[in-house]
Amino acid sequence: MRKKKYVWKMLYVYMLGYDVDFGYMELQAPCVKKAALCLLRLYRKNPDVVNVDGWEDRMAQLLDERDVGVLTSSVSLLVALDESS
């Protein structure tokens, strides 16, 4: 249980734009996809909880990903953020 909690904290820090080394880069794409979908779900339920200031650089990096799952989840998050502003 502690390991999962640690991984989710690291994913949150990664989504905030900080450099995080997960050790296994091939496992990073599914985790980033899940983190983007989690943020999307949270943002749709309560937009006031998610502070999106300064996410431009991080979102641009996510759009450069080669993984299709990461791209679709990132674009979904980007569209939701754009629709609300």
From TrEMBL:
Protein name as catalogued: Uncharacterized protein
Cited Gene3D superfamilies: Leucine-rich Repeat Variant (1.25.10.10)
Top-level taxon: Eukaryota
Source organism per UniProt: Pisum sativum
GO cellular component, one term: endomembrane system
Subcellular location: Endomembrane system
Main subcellular location of this protein, as a coarse class: membrane
UniProt KW keywords: Membrane, Protein transport, Transport
GO biological process, one term: protein transport
